[in-house]
Amino acid sequence: MEKKYLYNLLIVGLCLVLGACNGYLDEIPQNKQKLSTTDDYDQLLNNAYLTKVVLPYIDVLTDDMDYIAADRDPGFANSSDTYLGAHLWDNSIETTMPNGDEAFENFYNSIFNTNVVIENIDHAVGDVLDETVVRQTRNHIKGEAYALRAFRYFYLVNMYASPYDPATCETAPGIPINLEITADDKVYRRSSLKVVYEQIVGDLEKAIPLLEENPINNGKTRFSAIAAKALLAKVYLYMQEWDLAIAQAQEVIKANPALFDLREAGENPVIYTESPLAYWTADNVPGIGYLSEKNSNVLFVNGINEVYRILSGDNAQTVFYPSETLFNSYEPGDVRRYYFMRRNTRGRIRYMKNRYYRLNYLDFVVQLSSEYGYTRVLRTEDMYLILAEAYAHKTDGIKMAVGYLNTLREVKFRAQDFETTGRLDPEDFNQQTLLETIWTERRREFCFEEQRWFDLRRTTRPSITHYGITGSSTLEKDDPRYVLQIPQKELNVNPEIGANPR
User: Fold this and answer.
1) Most buried in the list 17, 58, 397, 400, measured by CB within 10 Å?
2) Fold of the CATH domain 246-363+379-460
């Protein structure tokens, strides 16, 4: 791959400084000639967490967003137009992005930083004299680096390669793997899907004991042992390793069974109502952000809320809205319908999952920060739904699967409605109808959290039709465009990677 995409320089004085959100260190050490202390490596790793917009288009690809051209004001530079190529699944979604698809570059830059940490942290000098403390710090930083590298490869392989299939993974092309810290010219080719997933699992298997045995509380914006376990459970689900996914998710829930409880919110007539709101502020929209790192069910948060501008309220900025099909997928009594979305007085559905309080919701936000929430989040709800899906694939697992579904759904429904419309009966399902129910539940629970596109890819890859300014486009069932195209600037300098089929 092109060196500037895969390699930040090890000389820290030449590294780029990324703006930091709350909970992140401000910058990598600029006054050092080379990395030497544990703090140097910790700050370099902090740089790799990417506290900026990276994937603003990922939910635009899904059936959870609508583009309403009638609301578009041609007199303004509408930010929706930037992502229209992605919304219409152009052969390369970059066609309407002025800077192209930057996720590939950003994630591989992040991986390079983790490589540097993993390779060199054992030689770092501590800031204290106690060698036991220094060793614990080194090992914790290394564990974080392994977990973060796995997280980056997990995203890359689920964007730029086909979904994992145990029957074909040994020969199916994945993505390039780079574990080096040198900057020599080199041709990078794709590893197989099997090799890529083995790399991800291997990194997490190294990360978890390092983080467990060397605990340091860095908050939820950095990887912990429980967050790494949650990611591993998700990886096993994608690999269709049902028993391993069950064991890992159960371990997470045993340590933290908390769920975001919406039953009290369901009793609030301002929240649970069909009445539209003209505008939203802290005064007239009670409740807290669903994806806040302060919530006990949240295990890890990364980046910033990437859908804020895309789903903001000013038509001069965007004409993307949560889709009608998503809004109508919630059952009577499901509080999430009104906690995540709400119609305004014009009848348009507005996004409010993070419930922005710092500024009026309709204000234009020049610089987003973590005060506006996150979209890459690991939380316990995912563990319950992983358990439900994994058990549903087992011949005798329907009762267990429905049990985990009901545990989750009970705290998302109004108390008076759960018994009548929310509780599910194992007798009502066969394996296929249960899986479809679980996938719909995932859609409801994880909307606008960068999960829907991945779930569509790994399950049914259905046909979807989107509408643009002048017409429509259809993503056919099993369409090759369910795999995003490698960015053109990468193909230009490293054609050995090979474009994805179209």
Assistant:
1) 58
2) 1.25.40
